Structures are given as structure tokens and as C-alpha cells.
Amino acid sequence: MADLDTKIVNVLGDKTAKPLAKHLDMHVVGDLLRHYPRRYVELGRASNLSSLQVGQHATVLARVVEAKNYSFGPGGKRTRTEVVVTDDTGARLSLTFFQQKWLAERMKPGSMCLFSGQVGAFNGKLQLTHPDYDLFDADGDTAESRLSRGVLPIYRATAAVPTWKLETCVGLCLDALDQLDDPLPDDVRAARGFPDLRAGLESIHRPHGMGEAVNAQKRFRFEEAFVVQTVFAQRRRALEHERASARAPIDGGLRDRFEQQLPFTLTDGQRTVVDEISTDLARTHPMHRLLQGEVGSGKTIVALMSMLQVVDAGAQTALLAPTEVLAAQHFRGITALLGDLARSGMLGSADVATRVRLLTGSMGAKARNASLLEAASGEAGIVIGTHALIQDHVQFAELGLLVVDEQHRFGVEQRAALVDRAAVKPHVLVMTATPIPRTIAMTVFGDLEVSTLRELPAGRQPIQTTVVPAAERPAWLERGWQRVREEVAKGRQAYVVVSRIGGPDDDGTNETHSLVELHDELVGGQLHGLRVGALHGRMTPDEKDATMNAFAAGDIEVLVATTVVEVGVDVPNATVMVIMDADRFGMSQLHQLRGRVGRGSEAGLCLLVTGSDADSPARERLDAVASTTDGFELSRLDVELRREGDVLGAAQSGVRSSLRLLSVVKDGEVIDDARSAADAVVDADPSLAGHPTLAAAVHDLEHSEQADYLERT
């Protein structure tokens, strides 16, 4: 007998186990049985052949119409077998086999067969050449057993391990299974009418009807959500017992003075979020809050007001940024916003002023030591920096609040370094400009409260986004360069964004524009006579700062850059952005990039240049970006047009690796239900001592190398 931890080789033998390990990374029985069918075929119905597309790897169930042999080659010694199959609509598909003459006898008209292979075309008709196949009426008892169930599972497979081989392996493992301990508590399962783990695996892999398969899918979809939510329920409970110093607002303090001198009024959304954070900061257990908002929605102002509240209360704050460019941008922006409120101890400073310090890895020794000293002494109320802030020798007199910008760019240990070092836990605010639907936030940031800024501050200008199909309409691209010249002639500035610096593409080709080549081409051609600069990740920090300062000062009119300008770069005079090979970027990334223009008094223009075909998925994504400036709507469209894992991104790989059936965007009700159930279980049994199988599942998820999505703060 076997359980889910039994090695596959012990059940199936070495010959079968090796391709499963090599091609599908399956090593134990659980790997195989948690590889659920991606769809089912009811055996009374053939596949819809008209939905096939050239280039896809397809598995189809079809009925044989005819099979004929044809001789070819010198002396007619070689054989080509042509098999024609059909579906329930009468659509037909040709299958071609070479040197398998006996197939014409085996493929009897009317027999049902599974075929798997790459869809091609010949003389305008779809065909499969030398597909793998599984003929139902050819394997006796096995075929009868499969046909009697009426529902056939179709698995995500490879050419080396087709779906029917997976089905056979799964069946052998199911037959070898002993009774299994279930991570779902009995009462949780019973309340929802779900089968136990052993029965559920049988139903999802060998159902006797679609209703049975669907209920099993519901069970495992809920289980995935439940384990993740149990992790977060335990974490939320643990946070309740951690202590932090309350940082209540002080009337007439630095925060009040700052708000009084702001040249604009906070939006209703900003005011609401400031109040939410202010309430959290006044409590004696640590705040853990996610602040998300559109590009330009005013997150920095909200974060700064929260930081000033903590400074008013006698503590320090740290702002952690992912790049030196962004850290320097924050330092300049916050210092400028505070004015004399950032000049504590200097002539003419305000009586409630503090100091703002920058700390990055590339700073000179003198400036670095000054920043370190003021952080350690407490003179600097606000310290802004990169990973350099995390180093062991960086000390704070009393760190009261950690703000993490673009949090997805930091690993778990990096985020934890500052928090764990403090004797009293600081409050934590993490920010992202990538809009996240509520259900993703619940699954990926389940231990964080979520605040959302949706409205843009008054005065922000609209951004017109246009797709430029360079291959079909080269004149449009030429017109795009003319628009850049026209904007510069009006005294404005422009970005040109590329996907790579130089050298070949990731796939070894040179199909996309490189920064080096495009910069030289523009300087000598379309933008001749303009002041064109370049910015990319291989430049030294000093070179980057000098370039950005020159662009901000207007000394550079057109900046050709990589995605280093994606976040934080704020040049209000920039009104146009040309994104080359835009199909190489994700929808959220394009949305972030275009947020760099239209930040001043003039409207923004973003041109998405692409060579992709008009009816391709890549063009569909670009059209979606051009159709709306609502980042939350784009998040929804992104899920519809791309695989969900791509939307979640690498930082959430722990969630991705554990979710096989659950859609964190589409299954909001399941996630809500699972969260309520997990809270009830953890409230009754915080250590899960009475639920050892659930505790083991939680441990596996929390301690997997991929579980970077867990905020250890």
C-alpha cells in the first residue's frame, strides 16, 4: 500500500518513473495525484475539431472515418498512412503516419480514439503528423473500464508522457493507495458536502459522471484556499500578541504643519487612508498594512504623513526603496515637500523640524558616515535608502515605522532584517503601484490589512495611449517620432523605452530594439539635433544620478531608457513616451511605464510600438492597455488574457506552486469561505495540535523555498 509520500518508482517501477521525473518533475505519489485533469471529455461526444489552431499541442477525442495506405519513394517501398477523423459537427481532421502500414487495419471506421500532437496545416487543411494515439477498442478490459465511466480525464502532458499514459499511472497509484489523512477537518468538510481526501482523488481522476468530477474539483479548490488562509490566520493571531509602541497623532506637530503648507488639498481617498493608518499607528500592536494605488494616486504623500506622525511621537521612520534611482528620487521629493520642516538644527528651520537622510551603497564614505551617525543618534527622523539600510551595522535610535516601496522587489529575509532587529516591533507599511484585485490581495497578502487609493489627485492630466503597428503601418512610427520632435519644440520632454540594453534577445535573436543601437539611430536620424540621453541598469549609480538630474533639469530632452524608469521617476515636464517592442512587456508594466508622463500641467501621450500580428494575443493585450487607464480594470483583463501565474509574478511563486485549481481572481467566494473557516479553526486550536495533517500542509507551504509571498514582518 502507498500514501502520498511514497516514491513513484516504488509503485510504478523505474522505467515508468524516470520520464515522470524528467519531464514533469514528479517524484512521489502526491506529485502525480495532485496533477489534476485540466479538462474532461464525455465519451459520447467527440472533441470540437474546428477550435484547433495551427501550432498548438492538442489532445482530441475523435471518430475514425477512414484509413488508407499510400506508397511513395523509390520503388514505392515507403508507406504513408492517411487517417481521417471527425467530430459530432462533421468537421474533419487529417492524421498522417509514416511506415506504419498496419495502422490502416487497426483504425477501423467508427472507432473512437484519442490523438495528441502538434497541429499543422497542409494545402489549407489542419492535420496532425505522426501524433501519439490511444485507440479505445484496442485494449480489451482497460478500454471497457474507461468507456463504462463515460468521462475521460485529459491531463496537462508532454510529448514524452501523453495524457493517456498519465491516466494509466494515476490509476495504478490510486489502486495502491491506503486510506489517507485529510488536511480538511471533518466538520469543515462535512459542512460543505465534500468527499474525504481518498474519495476525492478517486472522483477527480476517475469520475463516473461530470457531477462527481465537478464536486471533487470544488473540494480541492477549497482545500488550496483553506491551507493558504490557515497560514495567514495563524500569522494574524501571532501578530496580535506582538507589542509595538503606540504612535498617536499630536496636535500642532510636524504632520499638522506639513499639511497646512501643502499647496493642494488631499483627495477624499487620501484622507480616508491617512485616517486608517493613523488609527493603526496609535495601537500597541504592530500595524501591517498594504497601501496600493494607481501610478500618481498620491501614495507618497500618504506615506509621508504617516511617517511624520511617528516622528511627532518621538520615533524614527525608514523608507526602503528597491533601486538607488528611486531612493534618490524619494529623498529629493520628500526633502522638497517638507522644505524648512526637513532642516532641523539649521538656521531658519521650523521649531518642529526633523532631518531627512539618504543611505545607499554607492555613497561616499563621508556622506555615508554622516547618515549612519544621524540614524543611530536619532537626529534623522526619516532615513531613506536601498538594501544598504538592511546591513547589520545600520542602527536606529528608535525605529517606529518601516515603509517598503514596491514591496514585491524585496525578498522575505530582506524585509524582515530591519523589523527583527528592533527590540520593540516597528509598524510596517508596504506600498505597491501595481493594482491588485481584492481576491489576489487576500491570497497573497492575507496577513496585511489593505488600503486602496483609486482616485487621482486634482490636476493630473489624462494619458492617451495608442498602439503603433510598425510592421503594418511604418508611417505611423515615423509620425510618432515627429510627435516627439513637436513636443520638444514646445519645451517639453520625452521618454523612449526599450526592453534590452544591447546584445542578443533572451531567445538568442535580435528581433527587438536594443538601447545602444536605437540611441545611435535616433541621434543620427529621426531625432537628429535634439539632446538625447541614455539610462540603463549597467551604468554606475553616479552615472544614473547624473543622467536623471540632467533629464529633470531639462538638459536632456529625450531619454532612451530601459525599465529603470518604471517606478519613482518624476519629471512633470515629460509629456510623451514611446515604448518600443511593447508586446515584450506585461500589461501592468506598460501601465506603470505610461504613468511617468502626464504628471504636470500638460496631457500625456504613450505610443505602444509593436511588430506583432493584428490578431495575435500580444496585440490583444496592447489593445486592452490602450482601451483603459484604470489599473484595476487592466488587472482583470490581464487575468483573462494571460495565465494567472504571470499576473501574480515571481514574488508570489509560493502561492503559484500551491494553487492548481484555485483562481485567486475568479474564486473570490471560495477564498472568503476558506478564510472564515480557517479563522474558526485557528481560533479554536491556534497551534493546530488537533489537526496534524493540516499543520503539516501549513508547514510545507510556509517553509517551501518558493514561499516568498509570506510577509515575515
Automatic annotation (TrEMBL):
GO-annotated molecular function: 3'-5' DNA helicase activity; ATP binding; ATP hydrolysis activity; DNA binding
Similarity-based family: Belongs to the helicase family. RecG subfamily.
The protein's name in its UniProt record: ATP-dependent DNA helicase RecG
Catalytic activity: ATP + H2O = ADP + phosphate + H(+); Couples ATP hydrolysis with the unwinding of duplex DNA by translocating in the 3'-5' direction
Alphabetical GO biological process terms: DNA recombination; DNA repair
Domain Helicase ATP-binding: 280-453
NCBIfam families (UniProt xref): PRK10917.2-1, PRK10917.2-2, recG
EC number: 5.6.2.4
Organism expressing this protein natively: Aeromicrobium endophyticum
CDD domains: DEXHc_RecG, RecG_wedge_OBF
Top-level division of the source organism's lineage: Bacteria
EC category name: isomerase
Lineage: Bacteria, Bacillati, Actinomycetota, Actinomycetes, Propionibacteriales
Physiological role: Plays a critical role in recombination and DNA repair. Helps process Holliday junction intermediates to mature products by catalyzing branch migration. Has replication fork regression activity, unwinds stalled or blocked replication forks to make a HJ that can be resolved. Has a DNA unwinding activity characteristic of a DNA helicase with 3'-5' polarity.
One Pfam entry name: DEAD
Domain Helicase C-terminal: 476-640
Alphabetical UniProt keywords: ATP-binding, DNA damage, DNA recombination, DNA repair, DNA-binding, Helicase, Hydrolase, Isomerase, Nucleotide-binding
